[in-house]
## 1
Amino acid sequence: MNASNSPDDSNEEEIIQYGLSDEVVQELQDAVEAGDADFLHAKLDDWHSADIADLIEQLKPKLRSTFLDIMADKIEPDVYSDLDENVRDDLVEDMEPAEIAAVITELEVDDAVDVLEDMEEEEQQEVLKELSAEDRAAVEEGLSFEEDSAGRLMQRDLIAVPEYWNIGQTIDFLRDTDDLPNEFYEIFVVDPRHHPIGTIPLNRAMRSKRDVAVRDIMDTEQKLIPVDMDQEEVAYLFQQYSLASAAVVNANGMLIGVITVDDIVDVISEEAEEDLLLLAGVSEDDLFENVLSTARTRFPWLLINLFTATAASVAISMFDATMEAIIALAVLMPIVASLGGNAGTQTLTVAVRALATKELTAANMWRILGKEMIVAALNGSFFAVMIGLIAWGWFGDPIIGLVIAAAMVTNILVAGTAGMLVPVTLDKLNIDPAVASSVFVTTTTDIIGFVAFLGLATIVLL
Amino acid sequence: MNASNSPDDSNEEEIIQYGLSDEVVQELQDAVEAGDADFLHAKLDDWHSADIADLIEQLKPKLRSTFLDIMADKIEPDVYSDLDENVRDDLVEDMEPAEIAAVITELEVDDAVDVLEDMEEEEQQEVLKELSAEDRAAVEEGLSFEEDSAGRLMQRDLIAVPEYWNIGQTIDFLRDTDDLPNEFYEIFVVDPRHHPIGTIPLNRAMRSKRDVAVRDIMDTEQKLIPVDMDQEEVAYLFQQYSLASAAVVNANGMLIGVITVDDIVDVISEEAEEDLLLLAGVSEDDLFENVLSTARTRFPWLLINLFTATAASVAISMFDATMEAIIALAVLMPIVASLGGNAGTQTLTVAVRALATKELTAANMWRILGKEMIVAALNGSFFAVMIGLIAWGWFGDPIIGLVIAAAMVTNILVAGTAGMLVPVTLDKLNIDPAVASSVFVTTTTDIIGFVAFLGLATIVLL
């Protein structure tokens, strides 16, 4: 945090221009290529670490280390915690353990753990060796918590005061202590066992007279976060109760850390991104991954899809005689499967999202399934009539129209059912519905679509 | 905010149990059905408004008004702002303008605007008439800002002090003023024209001695938010710079409001949800919408899909003679389209997300397209060999295997290209890539998949 008076208040327009423009990135990339240190130092002097991190991500990979060399000690360590994980891991790989340790020493513990957690065990140990005993203990404790748990998110620096203090003592304590957290929004009140018993928002503390007892103005209805709580659950708490910060407690109920809402902003983003990508069959954000890793993260879903598509083809092949007799069926069959797949994807996406936000529960599941059935019947009927007329007009046979219409209604109803039941069932089985729902639902609508259409045609038309 | 000492500190286990369990919802729903007011009043006495809102959402729709009647004045107005939009609109429809006005009076302006904005013009006017002149002016001003803009998100209540004050004066002002915002994290410093020139985080103010000038400890590097900035952009700012709160300025640069990070948490969630749903062809979260509205929101995408699927069928029909000659082609053709569609969806989802987070830009677009091509070539080659062998083994004809393999490589390369170029192009045209990318990409991979496979087969096999 910068408390000095920056002289650079002149360019108001630039203040409103957030993020990097393509021109600026191009200009800076050219400067890196030309090795123009003076230009880069001058230009990036007052940049926020997050913008510098973005710039590094935008640079051609081979220029990134060059850039870091040019900037050297003008780079704040925070840049490393703001970087995309893949880009950071690439850069850190090229650094000496002592260099990494120098960066980590300057970071908050949660950010330091972020940088270290993806390293190989051996290299991690070498970096840890370079840290001071105190830092090493803090980082090792951080690493001891499970990934994506509250323990990894929390900061250990916090303000806790005993319940018998008053506001004056609290303020004096804050003024006299040098080693305070950078940012905090509330003061925790603890009992002699160091259990949190209340909180005082800073603004309330500021408005209170010095002789007011902290006990008398604290909120006792605080939401405590067990240190092993999953970060998705932590994010839910912050959203649900509009929290600014919350105390983290260990298994004995002792106050051991604090999570603030700005850490949660990133978690919410990450979790929503994860669901978005998983639904599309991508296991993680791979924009900045190298080619091989990207191909690998995309591979499993395509492989599963190869099997499910082949299964659908096997279903089709049972009706090859029917198709040979009436080739129009082969022409029309993808329409039924395609619309079914889309209707199913709509339902399952709403369901996956509603499960994530805890809006879809056992209490309303059957009611919402019922609603989905009616929606499917409405849209299904409309599209059945449409496709029936198209098929009749196209191939001049009303029976083909009737067959495809019947198959369409069936498949859209199946889509609505599968779109609800598959994610709900996976969720009950403690499988992330975002991962596996799509493949189950679209395989179902493909196979049902083909079989309903070709099967009905076999019965009616042959 | 509750500053009293709650006697209910005994059940520590329940504190850790967040969110509503299915059993609790069932129990409470039964109580509503039985009209058991005493039970409900006792049980819900210390519930947070967000949990009561969740309970209302979980209740059968016909029980919701009953519940509100039973709870009557025991319901905090905040419950209304915590409710899902669809559920709230249903409930508000049944209320008298005076009742709605009574609720709105108790809400913060941004929440009041939320409740009012979806009402019909005429009803909105009737409610506004019931408000006090001051509240009406504030709400009308709120409504005058564009939906989803910073003006709708901001709170007008904030602490601004002149630059010539010192910390002592600031603290005395806070202590002596009754009508302060409920929650605030920083103090704004303004010049005589009421332009914001700096901010002081509360924790810094608390640690400073009374005689320190605010000018000397303020941060001047603040991020200002123009009142008409889109909320997605505002969310980006908060995330990028880890802001706790930020000043909102009007066109003249005057400080007119403040946005705090807890409002942003909801925006980030909403925007991510919007992208997720749009990619699946659902225009808004419709879990709590009624049947007709839900069918309507799902309809357009299915209609577009009907046309694109029919277009794909037309493409297939050009090769009906080929399929009649070799029915195996009809059996196999969905596999090529299906894998192409999936590969395309993977790429486009990563691209849509990266555009939203400003990680994919003009500066790195060609590089990342190049990467996608290599990924497609790698995975495409593998799956080409796989499906080639499957087809050969299945139909005993190596030429069919070669044809499907060639079509598969082609289609996965096309999928990678379209998956990148379609969202980037839409974004350049200022069309939300989340809305329209899927349909373009999957139509492309369907048609190319069918045409490449059947066309090649016509050339090679006939």
## 2
Amino acid sequence: MLSSHKIKIIQSLDKKKFRQKYNLFLVEGNKIIQEIPNSAFKIKEIFSLNLENLKIRNVESSLISPAELKKISFLQHPKDSLALCELPLESPFQEFSKQIILDGIQDPGNLGTIIRLADWFGIEQIICSEDTVDYLNPKVLMASMGSFLRVKICYKNLEDFCAETENANLGTDMKGENIYQFQFPERFNLILGNEGKGMRPDTFKNLQHKITIPRFGNYQNTESLNVSMAAGIILGHIFSKK
Amino acid sequence: MLSSHKIKIIQSLDKKKFRQKYNLFLVEGNKIIQEIPNSAFKIKEIFSLNLENLKIRNVESSLISPAELKKISFLQHPKDSLALCELPLESPFQEFSKQIILDGIQDPGNLGTIIRLADWFGIEQIICSEDTVDYLNPKVLMASMGSFLRVKICYKNLEDFCAETENANLGTDMKGENIYQFQFPERFNLILGNEGKGMRPDTFKNLQHKITIPRFGNYQNTESLNVSMAAGIILGHIFSKK
């Protein structure tokens, strides 16, 4: 049985402060939990409705009831299992030829969706500004559909990083060059800004190229595309040349 | 002041059954409400925190308090105004050269996002299967960011429609042709299936072409892309040739 103390700790893990305090974060669902041993992450403890279905060894595991799972899950419809994992150790930084940079993304769904996109297109690393939502937030992990296990994600001071990177910095800007005419360089950082305010000036000044997705509809009132959708369309176009 | 009877009616409008019973649906936010007079929709009544900010004439309007707005709004953070609108009359059906067909889309966010995409790319019409979520659902309207005012949306029996359309039916299928190699025909229906189950067999059998977005990442466990993201990437690619 789950102690009320442990329930309280798990329930607090939707907040970054408590993830750091306890050095823990949560992963839900057998499908994703089973991939953890092959990733850079480490499971500390598992709680499951049916341990037989989980093929993971050498990890402390407890059988729990659906009522207990409901208490500790952050899902509206809890899945089969929940794993407490240790926060990852910071690994030495390495640049990749194709990276995504996020400047102040706030919506967990957007970050999760962008991680999932990076995984699909084989973008190995996402570099986030320090004020971007934490990728170990349960809502981000949910939206990433397990892709956080396969994409490197780090947080950096973007002003410094964008000045020092060896890749060309490409940023979205409504007055930028049409992506369909733009020649994408071999090495690039695709930079995406905050949902409302866009990129901060310190990031914007380090752009080598500004790009935009042209609108084909004829209505002036059309809202610009959501940031994760814009990322998908740009990546889809870049990879059309491969 | 808002009568409790009226509050009850408005609060029921998140359900299709009550939208049909009262012949009403809800639009929230000055920005979108102000576009309604230039669309195919008609406002019946407006409730606003500040009527001066709303430049709409000849419509019954009431000043309400923030507490009243909170009661009738479906938003977590209610905006400035809320408009009760009449359900649209069915207009005579017309085919367009580029259409989206949705077969059983259930998630309101996905439908709203696809409407917004259609608006961006100038796709004039979306044809939904009868079991696709109702586009006048408040969550769909919210996600569409006002684009439902500019894109024609209708509900049809897809088996009949797909057999009779003059456009080529293109559907997503994991075993389909790579979109980057596929020659998109001039007239097409882009058909997207249910989030979990995909297209129903009666739709699938009417496809002239099956297409897929290739995965560039190297991991077998990567989840396939969400349906609205797939729509965005495919449309982005189609329009790269324009």
